[in-house]
């Protein structure tokens, strides 16, 4: 993994190579390490790479040494993940454009990253009405107290109310920044930032020291949406960054919810448009909790004794063999080829982080395939 991690970093340092192209390179060659060694002719077969970009890549590869780059980067930014790391948030990894490098500060929760703890984004305007503030506080508190991790952007207004409500409920929260994780923006949230670090997590796709820039925030919003199973928009005018987050959530196949407001309130116009386009209407806290599907429980039927067990590969590590066997058993008992990650964790005596790590290794060995929605099947 260390080698592949270095190549995620190396590729991401090249001009003109963004997250979507990186996923195409990985799919085309099987790994970014192999893509780094590929000929210009082979690179031209990747959709989106033209002669000029390929020539730029060839020049850059002669100057960049991935392992050295990784060593230096780890010195300057010790806390970061790439998609080659098992800790990389699984829901974010399912998106078409995950950040090739994701920096973090604060307290890491592996179950949260693995997706076994549900995450919900709550976003909105920087200038909310008293109505928007009140319902943001109520909804955030209810979600936090019912086992959800709430994600927002640490901006003024709705974001601030979200993080503060989580902390007042003595629950953790995740803040995604449009600057380096060591840069506090806005400055008025300095105290709130420190409080988030004490119990929660701060994330960014920008290295330490990166100052905020207006072009960073729309792209930041895709991370907020990608981390979460659902996005709630509390208040948003017709032109609002919160609507960008909702757009990404919809593109990623995640649920979008909107708080209704008055027709003559400009901060409600964006939410009303979202509802008109199919977003779920937030009618109340109990209804919202029901719609979000409170922490599903799985009842796994015992495997019938007459079912013939498929043969497992030889010489697997005990943990890998255990995960593969449980995946096989569940597929047999449910009559379904694909099993959700949550169901696997519920059915196996291992931490979620260990199950996630084992699944990734089994994928690399060609024994398991991951399907959309964090579902897995034997190959």
Q: Can you characterise this structure?
A:
With 379 residues, the chain is of the alpha/beta class. The protein folds into three domains: 2-76, DNA polymerase, domain 1, CATH 1.10.150.20; 102-292, 3-Layer(aba) Sandwich (Rossmann fold), CATH 3.40.50.450; 318-378, Winged helix-like DNA-binding domain superfamily/Winged helix DNA-binding domain (Arc Repressor Mutant, subunit A). The chain has helices at residues 2-12, 19-29, 32-36, 40-43, 51-63, 66-76, 90-93, 110-114, 130-145, 158-168, 190-199, 216-226, 241-251, 269-276, 285-292, 318-334, 341-346, 352-364; strands at residues 80-81, 102-106, 119-123, 149-152, 173-176, 201-204, 230-233, 255-258, 280-281, 339-340, 368-371, 375-378. The strands form two sheets. A nine-stranded mixed sheet has the order 1-2-6-5-4-3-7-8-9, with helices on both faces. A three-stranded antiparallel sheet has the order 10-12-11. Helix 9 runs parallel beside helix 10. The longest helix has 17 residues, at 318-334.
How is the topology of this model organized?
Blueprint: H1 2-12, H2 19-29, H3 32-36, H4 40-43, H5 51-63, H6 66-76, E1 80-81, H7 90-93, E2 102-106, H8 110-114, E3 119-123, H9 130-145, E4 149-152, H10 158-168, E5 173-176, H11 190-199, E6 201-204, H12 216-226, E7 230-233, H13 241-251, E8 255-258, H14 269-276, E9 280-281, H15 285-292, H16 318-334, E10 339-340, H17 341-346, H18 352-364, E11 368-371, E12 375-378
Parallel strand pairs: 3-4, 3-7, 4-5, 5-6, 7-8, 8-9
Antiparallel strand pairs: 1-2, 2-6, 10-12, 11-12
Helix pairs in contact: 1-6, 9-10, 10-11, 12-13, 16-18
């Amino acid at each position: 993994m260390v080698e592949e991690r270095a190549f995620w970093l190396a590729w991401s340092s090249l001009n003109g190579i963004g997250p979507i192209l990186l996923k195409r390179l990985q799919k085309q060659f099987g790994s970014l390490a192999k893509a780094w060694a590929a000929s210009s002719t082979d690179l031209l077969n990747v959709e989106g790479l033209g002669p000029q970009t390929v020539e730029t890549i060839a020049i850059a590869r002669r100057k960049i040494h991935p392992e050295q780059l990784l060593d230096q980067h780890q010195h300057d930014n010790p806390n970061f993940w790439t998609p080659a790391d098992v800790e990389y948030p699984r829901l974010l990894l399912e998106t078409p454009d995950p950040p090739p490098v994701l920096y973090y500060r604060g307290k890491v929760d592996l179950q949260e990253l693995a997706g076994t703890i549900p995450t919900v984004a709550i976003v909105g305007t920087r200038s909310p009405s008293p109505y928007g503030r009140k319902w943001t506080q109520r909804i955030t508190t209810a979600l936090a107290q019912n086992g959800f991790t709430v994600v927002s952007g640490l901006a003024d207004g709705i974001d601030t109310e979200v993080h503060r409500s989580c902390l007042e409920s003595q629950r953790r929260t995740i803040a995604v920044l449009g600057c380096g994780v060591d840069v506090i923006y806005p400055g008025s949230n300095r105290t709130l930032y420190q409080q988030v670090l004490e119990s929660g997590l701060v994330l960014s796709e920008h290295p330490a020291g990166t100052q905020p820039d207006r072009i960073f925030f729309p792209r930041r919003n895709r991370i907020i949406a990608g981390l979460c199973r659902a996005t709630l928009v509390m208040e948003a005018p017709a032109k609002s960054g919160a609507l960008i987050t909702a757009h990404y959530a919809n593109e990623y196949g995640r649920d979008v919810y909107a708080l209704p407001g008055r027709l003559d309130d400009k901060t409600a116009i964006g939410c009303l448009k979202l509802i008109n386009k199919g977003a779920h209407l937030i009618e109340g806290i109990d209804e919202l909790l029901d719609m979000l599907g409170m922490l599903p429980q799985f009842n796994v039927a015992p495997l019938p004794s007459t079912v013939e067990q498929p043969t497992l590969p030889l010489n697997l590590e005990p943990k890998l063999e255990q995960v593969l066997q449980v995946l096989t058993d569940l597929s047999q008992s449910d009559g379904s080829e694909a099993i959700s990650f949550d169901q696997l964790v519920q059915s196996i005596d291992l931490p979620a982080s260990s199950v996630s790590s084992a699944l990734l290794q089994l994928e690399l060995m060609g024994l398991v395939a991951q399907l959309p929605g964090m579902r897995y099947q034997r190959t």
